[in-house]
Amino acid sequence: MKKPSIGKMLSYIHRFNQKELASILKPFDIGGGGHHNYLKAILSNPGLNQDQLTNELKFDKATTTRCVKQLEEAGYVYRSVDSSDRRSYLLYPTQKAKDFEPVLKRILDEFSLQMTNCLSESDKQQFADLLKKIYDSKQG
User: Fold this and answer.
1) What's the rounded Cα separation, in Å, for the pair 30 and 23?
2) Cα–Cα distances in angstroms (integers) from residue 106 to residues 78, 86, 100, 102, 128, in the given order
3) Taking phi first (over 0 means left), then psi (-120 to 50 degrees means alpha), and beta for anything else, what does residue 116 get?
4) Contact 79, 89 (CB under 8 A)
5) Which of 52, 64, 103, 131 is 20 to 30 A off residue 38, Cα-Cα?
6) How far apart are CA 48 and CA 50, in angstroms?
């Protein structure tokens, strides 16, 4: 029997994760494709610009622009021109986003628990450690 590819399994898990999260977050008008990651980053770092957001989340500029636009249209984020660089926008969470933050945290925490409920605590820790080790090796 052929051993499954680690990359393929990670890809399957990622796609499942994104599809399920998109469904859960749809009633809150938060799109799929990692929009929740953008919102979390902006909530954690009010005033960062789109380039910083792109670098922090490891997405491309076009994806960042689309996600920020959608979050802005949904009323979660607003942009302000950077006074030190008029070509750049600083991103801030709205009150709607701040009010939603504990709900988002609960949703993501519960989702993580559901994703890993088949693992023991030691398996979860080992799995997280191994993923971090692989990730760190690619940052070189």
Assistant:
1) 9
2) 24, 37, 10, 6, 20
3) alpha
4) yes
5) 131
6) 7
- Token pair in block for residue 52: 């910083």
The reply to whether 77 falls in a domain is: yes
Q: Where in the sequence is the domain holding 72, given as residue range(s)?
A: 6-108
Average pLDDT over the chain, rounded to an integer: 91
- pLDDT at 133 exceeding the cut of 90: yes
Q: Is residue 119 part of a domain?
A: no
Amino acid type, 120: S
Number of domains making up the chain: 1
**Residue that the structure tokens 């692989």 belong to:** 134
Q: What is the pTM of this model?
A: 0.85
What CATH number is attached to the domain comprising 65?
A: 1.10.10.10
Would 136 be classed as within a structural domain? no
pLDDT in tens, 35-73: 999 999 999 999 999 999 999 998 899 999 999 999 999
